[in-house]
Amino acid sequence: MKRYSAFALAREAFRNHSGWERAWRAAVPKDEYDVVIVGAGGHGLATAYYLAKNHGISNVAVLEKGWLGGGNTGRNTTIIRSNYLQDESAAIYEKARSLYETLSQDLNYNIMFSPRGVLMLAQTEHELRAWKRTAHANRLAGIESELVDPQQIKKIVPIINLDGPRYPVLGGLWQPRGGTARHDAVAWGYARKASAMGVDIIQQCEVTGVDRDANGVTGVQTSKGAIRCKKLCFIVAGSSGLLAEMAGFRLPIESLALQATVSEPIKPIIDCVVMANTVHGYLSQSDKGELVIGGGTDGFNNYTQRGSFQHIEETIRALIETFPVISRLKQLRQWGGIVDITGDRSPIIGKTPVPGIFVNCGWGTGGFKAIPGSGWATAEMLATGEPGVLAQSFSLDRFAEGRMIDESVAAAVAH
Amino acid sequence: MLKLTCPYCGVTGEETEFHAGGEAHLKRFGPGSGDEDFTNYLFSRKNPRGVHFERWRHQYGCGKWFHAARDTGTLEVFGTYTAQTGEPPADIVAKIKAKRPEWEGFA
Amino acid sequence: MKRLPTGGRLIDRTTTFDMIFNSRRITAHPGDTVAAALMANGERMVGRSFKYHRPRGIVASGAEEPNALMNMGEGEWLEPNQRSTVTPVVKGQSFESQNHWPSLEFDVGVINAKLSRFFPAGFYYKTFMRPRWAWKHLFEPVIRQSAGLGKAPDQPDPDSYEQFYAYTDVLIVGGGIAGLHAALEAGRAGAKVLLLEQNPNLGGRALVDVVDIDGKPSPDWIAATIAALEDMPNVTIRTATMAAGVFDHGYVTAQEQVATYTQGSDAPRHRLWRIRATRIITATGAIERPLTFAGNDIPGVMLAAAVRDYAELYATAPGERTIIVTNNDDAYRTALTLHSAGIAVPVVLDARPEATGTLPEQARAAGIRIETNAAIAKVHGKRKVTSVDICDHTGAGDVRETIPCDSVAMSGGWSPVVHLWSHCGGKLNWDEANAMFAPDPKRPPTGDDGEGFVIPAGSATGDLHATQALANAAEAGRQAAIEAGFTPSVGAAPLATAPTEYPMLPVWMMPINAPYKLRSKAFLDFQNDVKASDVALAAREGFTSVEHTKRYTTLGMATDQGKLSNINGLAILAESLNTPIPQVGTTTFRPPYTPISLAAIAGDARGPLFKPTRKTAMDAWHDANGADWEPVADWRRPYTYVRDGETKRDAVHREILNTRNHVGMLDASTLGKILVKGPDAGKFLDLIYTNMMSSLAVGKCRYGLMCSENGFLFDDGVVARLSEDSFLCHTTSGGSDRVHAWMEEWLQTEWWDLQVYTANLTEQYAQIAVVGPDARNVLESMGGMNVSREALPFMTFAEGELAGIPARAYRISFSGELSYEIAVPASRGQEFWDAALAAGAAHSIMPYGTEALHVMRAEKGFIMIGDETDGTVTPLDLNLGWAVSKKKEDFIGKRALEREFFHRTDRKQLVGLMPENPDDVLPDGAHAVEPGTNIYGQKNMIGHVTSTYYSPTLKHGIAMALIKGGAQRLGETLSFPLEGGKVIKAKIVDPVFYDKEGARQNV
Fold first, then answer.
1. Measured distance CA(B93)–CA(B78) in Å, rounded
2. Nearest Cβ partner for A254 among B2, B42, B45
3. Residue A415: pLDDT over 50
4. B8 vs C: CB within 8 A
5. Which of A395, C118, C370, C887 is most buried, taking the most CB atoms under 10 A from its CB?
6. How far apart are CA C561 and CA C545, in angstroms?
């Protein structure tokens, strides 16, 4: 892998950029791998990378039915935060956030992690109490996060309207080291480095069947032929249920469409990410200048990755109330992604009823921020065959036990 | 924005008039049921890409819960019908079979 | 001011007025677009590009314009990124070009252009990584500042917006000849028709490119057709209304520009149409494609059809010597138009080997020089075109000749506008002959019935020639009418006659073998500065999916969403990959077609109308008497009533002490009240509640809990049995709708054999709690029903009259005091409130708010849903096992509560806490820790505070908490480490802090 640097750019500039190589190899599937990961989104690629980096396992294929990073990795609103309430969530999201801090250097790919802060508004007394509780939990979990009052909020976000007639801003939970990153770059950066370490990333390769014998999984059937493997992991947000069905088990997941939109680019008006859960709106401004706006999920199972109008409408209303100066800006584009929602809206990382098959799914509306931590934990599980510390609470059997990891305790949505 | 027809009051309304309620025809496993049955009943909902039967409530209309047969991949609505039934009515099943010959049927 | 002697169909040349561009005075005619006026005033440079800050001029004449975007207006009227090619001029309006500093002419950001060789596609992924701090503190701030286009206003929006809901049989998008004729066909069939045109005028291209329709010149035919449509009551036409998005099941949004200039007017600025259409006809026309040659971004290089639009419609032109470059016959129309308007056309460069069609021959006959197999090697000029190097198209750019000129009109062929067709899943076919993606009529977007609901018409089908376009529009209009249930008339469609055109030659890079030097100056996306070389680089680096290329290079991600750039970009990608174009495919078309204002989406749901507030019958009284409001679900409730000189805390303590010592009043109307009635009502409630309700005697009240099927507590309240077959169930204020829906779901989908009706009566009653030792005295002095201890013991209710008002009095208490909750008809709530206040005056009655309510219930150890519960807490965790029936065979949650995990002794369980220091109040949500760390390396948290107050009654801080194994820890002292190293120690006590025996409420 040729290093990326300002020097390399300068050198290439004088030979018309003819020396740049493919970011990742165009791999042809081998007959057999130690590990086959289905899904080349952020989570799948990160898993492959940490398998190679942390565990020295690089005889790995990542199979992707479309183009890598083309699912929710390329459709989300790029928020990164770790100020979660429950211990196990805080642990994995904070692992992810801290890996994000050095990811550009680690991957030699500028993923533009930008810790400009995440502010979660409290607009009812109840919400304020929930953020207070979260702030205490975060401090004890070693996560930098604090409760801020309306005056501090006004300093952080000067364009905010604190005194909306309906839901005045009472305070907020501020995570100064949260922020955003360039979502596509996260997938591309992991793909490039994993590929350089020997991982085969195979695009346009759809899994059509799962092969198993009495002892468990033996391989997969794909649009590019059969591939044998010892371990198989599904990391396919939006299609988790379908693949599970193929392998003969069912996951506690429903697939819903999540809406998002961006405005036209304008000069900077807001630095941090603001989430207003009571009124259902959140926004940040990308480096390009677009306001990146997240909407809600449709209430019904939906596999179309299309935009619908009413959630965007609700979100935009909320945001204009909260940030009146955005009223005259224009909507540029809206879209939808399919999110996997579990019974407690927390993810599943764990074994399945079929020996050798593992899953990483159910990140709901908040998967992007978890990518490095999720990949780290999933790689550990695939390498050792058992979930490690970070993953163990997120096992599939928690639903049977009634051991919910419920973050909606603290927030109406888990973005 | 879906369009649905409430089988009770006959009104065709916007999606915003209705409230989606998840999988229809659930078989409830209550006290005395085994762990697996109970867990599956609570969490392992059908999630197909294709023909799906689901609950809706005419929330801002007559208030009745009803069922819809819908394709989650195309959003085609095959029909809506009363919730007071254990399985989809024969005419709707026939209609789906005609339109989706590959459909395995309600199970 | 420069105007052509002829032309100007849309402007009123007899009137002029001024507008302001970059502080300069610009003279305009009514009917001009801002872009037309700028052109007529000789303004060539109108903005700067996004990445390299290169000079940018007007390219197009419509919605596809990528460059001429303006900050319109000032102050609170400012609107950024206004597309000047579609913005009508208004007297006095000011416009500023964007993305430069300090000025359009001298922009320091142009340094980016000088360094552009270092900034190819995706360069930022390859650098700015070290030192690590520099991205956030150095590189990113600079990038952010130089990115973005216009400015946001810094004040709230003074304008108003509205929304229309429309239902129609046939929606037609586009008011060109195809849309107009389709409307006529569908309208004649009797269908309700709505026709939307994004421009202020109807007619489309046929106003400029005049053809003969049934013997009439097209402008006359258009006028006649409009007149015919206006006579039809079932046809509505809206101009300046852009169909923005097609959504599922035939839902369409459109934005109408009602008033461009609203200062001093009360007209809404935009109107958002929300349309349901049975069938949608997309007569959206086609967009001309630029050609990709070096220097194609220099101001003065324009689309050929746009050049003749400006000439014909606005009597202006981008220059006086215009070179035409084309791969098709259509651009010769521009040559002819300019020639006849007196503009010099030094040469038409035709990439094809020969040009012998009708239009080229007309041009030749007019004396215009035509060069075939000809291409532009390079355009010279910085802020405007000065000359053009011409070369063989099939070569590598060896210059044949340099021709001076001040403008270039280019045409790379046309692409049908397929956006609306595609939004909801309509598929495209590759048309090899015209080198374009066109709608595949066999794969339309499908609606709720599974049938296609969008029908393309006119040139939007890919049939660019007027004859076919009009013919297929007639067919589309009839088909839509039939499919919407109408019978169209039969008869011949109008016949359009226009010169035949010879085939175009697909040209993606000009010249074909252009070297890197030229490719790196040949722009695909003018706004985002994406060049042919960038796409090639992306392909080389493995970004081979069209979506990858788009994201890596930002091709098509500008505010025009790639209307000009996408097809050229993906053709270059295909060329780089050596793949056929259809195999590369397109990126996804997403709404809106062109940007719409956020304000229009929000409509009038702003300020007080943002979310309706539910108000109780006494709301106005509260507001007039010092209520400090708190939003509670959709309601607002007084948090406390602050008197002069008091803090909120003072007020709350006053209210508590007064209630404990004398008597207080609470507006409890927001509590949910659900009537459950029928022979099986008791049986049903036994399933809904964890405890037994069927055994409740008529006239009595019982506190009940509701669990989810997963065993978690989610609502609670007092149930009163009104009669043998009816129960009134109180719920939390936020829970009434949810609980009602919940009951209905179970009744209708699971236990439909039960004979039960439910009704949500929450707003039928005003409910007033009269609470405190003097409560009975107050009620007795109001006169009416017997409220004595004997007649109305604790946990019973009675019906009667109080102060002449029909009332139901419940002896229930959430404060531990002698307490009555009186329900009266909502319409008489204020009357009762006033009467109670008057009767209570002698007992120093005063109202109290939600905070006093909370403190008093915490003093009694009563749980509050949402505080002590959070969706993960069972009744057992809250020591409420007594309210979970062991006798009942079934209730919702029973099976879940049997799980072993719910009986573990180390679950978090409810405890009371008394801080060691009586003045300490534990902070909300504070966590208790034990020594050491957990498996994650976090401090060992064992639970958290759920409710915490200073109790003025006990003169001591009190709290409730959920603590691991709390039930076994009575008497232990816990540590709560706070911010800044402070630690509060608190002792675990019984959560009932006050009047443990319940003596005060049971009197």
1. 9
2. B45
3. no
4. no
5. C370
6. 18
